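Chain A, query sequence.
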Amino acid sequence: MTRFYRGIFIVWVALRYGLDELVLTSFQKPWLRIVARVVSIGRNLDAPRGQRLREALERLGPIFVKFGQVLSTRRDLLPPDIADELAFLQDRVPPFPSSVAIATIERAFRRPVGEVFVQFDETPVASASIAQVHFATVRDAKGALRDVAVKVLRPGMRTVMEKDLALMAMMARWVENLSADGKRLKPREVIAEFDKYLHDELDLVREAANAAQLRRNMEKLELVLIPEMLWDYCHPEVIVMERMNGVPIAQLERLRAAGVDIPKLARDGVTIFFTQVFRDGFFHADMHPGNIMVSLQPQTFGRYISLDFGIVGTLTETDKEYLAQNFVAFFRRDYKRVAELHLESGWVPEGTRIDELEAAIRTVCEPYFDRPLKEISLGMVLMRLFQTSRRFHVEIQPQLVLLQKTLLNIEGLGRQLDPELDLWATAKPFLEKWMIDQIGPKRLFAQLKAEAPRYAKLLPQLPRLLHEFLENKPADHRRELLELLAAQKRTNRLLQTVIATGLGFVLGLVVMQIVVRVQVF
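Chain A, predicted structure.
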């Protein structure tokens, strides 16, 4: 019955806030129109549709707020006004009682909280829909005291999540069956994506592993600090990490007063992001101001501090190639190449006319070239490309949509710090290096090195294979042997040709590097 009443409440909220207008603009069944009109008598729909959707999600609770946050990243599916409004959703959730947090810690570690921590601050310092954070102190292996932050999963989240996800999936089926517009929004696919994302975020050990990977990747860059995870104190419901001390990046006046170079801070943020994307293919995908601080400690002064690693993005080599070539083609105004990249990626449906896709992309991108490069938003370019792709029924991969959302966050933050920030000038070295690595000798040698184990295993077997071949021939095998020797001579000449061609190819690659540096960039 609880699930039934919850479903009734969700439908009531949806109708009261006019959400039926968002996805059911063309009811296929007359009786539904009558029901909607009766239930929605007296509702006020003066507010914009995006605002009404945001307020409805906030009314429905934490899981729906989190769903709206995830949905805001799917700009390939949503109209811009709705996506922009959903981006304002915040986890304004009251903290749960400290006694509950302590009970969760004691259940996870099977001992009293006083034995786990030397000191535990019962007042939380942060609270969100999934978890809240407390400060504490532990004693390390050498007996020294260490300040830590303890992240505790909100109790009962999995049960609530499973119920609300089941209701969301049921509503998604309704929407698909009742409206052609609903089918276009692919609600069941969106709910499935949210289901996976939410299950991942509910496992705090996964977040700790993400943080550890980013910490290793960023260690030598010396631009960002990522808290160390204390693995002896990590559990799916509780993780303990190094306590980070810094100033929230939104407090610009305080940072300026401390002497932080704000324009450099803006450039460093872009450098961190593009390093994670194009070098590592593993990036922090929730880099909004609430998750970023700046260190004022003398030894790490002016460095970023990243927090909250529940959402990370990963890119394959194919993804990185698609992105880099799209950016390069865009800045060369080679719209045909952008269209071809959509085709080569396999995302364009069969029968799509490349010339039509090229014309649509030109219409979207050409206006940007009336502006200086520093005013061009790479995140907006990606967003416009995705929206154009929607018209041609292109299936955009979730990791690229997540990247586009994060890039918009980075650009917004960077230009808030420094309005004169030239994002392209900062991104160019990474794109240039990537292009050189892809077509240069380094790439060729890397591929040969990767294949070397197979060659090493095969080459020693060749004499034995030749011997077995001769042993299995009849006595009169002289002619075959002569033919084999002749074939070996031809092979030798072929190898000589291949080697000569290879040397020429390597020289050609060197020339291509120069061409890429001079002409492409």
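The chain has four domains: 2-91+162-200, 98-153+203-312, 315-438, 440-520. The longest strand covers residues 131-139.
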